[in-house]
Records
---
Amino acid sequence: MEIILNVILSVLTGLISSYLFLKYYLKRKRPVISISKYISKVNINGESNYFFKFVNNTDVEIFDVHIELTFYKPFGDFAGRNLQGKDIQLKDNFISYIPFAKDNDLHNLHAMRIRTTEDLEQNWEDESSFIRLTIIAKHSLSGFNKVFVHDYLTKDCITEKKFLSGDELNVN
C-alpha cells in the first residue's frame, strides 16, 4: 500500500511541477514586438515609399517573421457591418531572423523598417477605411508564436518625417 501511495504522489508531484513550469516559465517565452504608430513617407529616386517600423523587444532572437499589410473598408449588409480587405504589396514580407537588442550592436539590427511603394494616400478611400499591420513572429527558445496587430485609423498617421534610429518608434 505504501508503494502505491509513493507512486501516486510521485506522479502527482511531476504533473504539478510540469504545469507550473509551463504556466510560469514558458508563458513568458513569447516574442515581444513594439510597432510605431506612424507611417513615414520618404521619396526615393522620385518614387514615394511608405515605411513602417517595429522593434524586437524580446530578450532573445525571433525568427520566421511574417508581415502582412492590408487596407480594410467596412461595408454594411442587412445583418451588420463587415470588412472588405485588400492586401498591400510589401517589398519584404518575410524576415527569417531578427536579433535582440545588444549594447555592441551599432546598426540596431533589432529595429526593422518595412516598406511599400503603393500610394497609400491615394488608395485610402474614405474616413471609414484603415490599414492593419499584422506581424507574426516565433520565439527562438520556446518556438511559440505571437501575433501583433496595429491599426492605422486615419491618414494623419502618414508623415513626411523620418523614423529615429534604434528603439525609438517616433519620427523626427
---
Amino acid sequence: MKINIKLMLGAMFFPAILLAQNPLAEHANQKPREKFSTLYIVLSPSSGKELMVTHNLIINNSKIAKLEQMRADLVQKRFGSSANVVFIVTPTAGVKLTKIGDIYKKHNVSTSKRRLPLKLDGMLYSASDDVVVDETSLKSFDNLADSIVLKTSNREEILEKRKRKLQ
C-alpha cells in the first residue's frame, strides 16, 4: 500500500519537475530556430577568384590549401538567412572539383535516375542536394536500380584511420 502511494505521488509530480528543469519549457511559445546551414565558397588556387558556392563539398583534407571562416556580419550581408556559417576553401593545385550533375553526365546516368538518392562514402544525399566532389579522389561509381553509389579515397582514409585505432 505504501509503495503504491509513493508511485502515484511520484507519477503526479515527476512531469512538473521535468518542466521546471527543462530550459526549453520557458521558450515554448517562441518560433523554432532556423535550420543550421553551412555554405562553402570555393576559390581558384591560381587566381583566387570565386569558382562556386555549394552546401555540400566533398574534398580530402590533404587537398585543401587554405580554409577560412567568413565573418558573421559578411555572411549576413551576402547570404541573409540562407546560411549561418560560410567557409572559404582554396583547394591545392590540380584538384578538379565537379558538380554531381556533371559526374552523372560523364557516367551516362539517365535523367530519371538522377532523382534517385545519392550515397557518397556511406552518407545519403537527396537527389536535389547540390554536391561538389573532388573528382581526382573518385574511386568507384555504381549506378544501381534504387540509388547511385560513389566512393572516394576519403572513405578509404577514414577506414584506415579506424583500423589503426583498433590495433
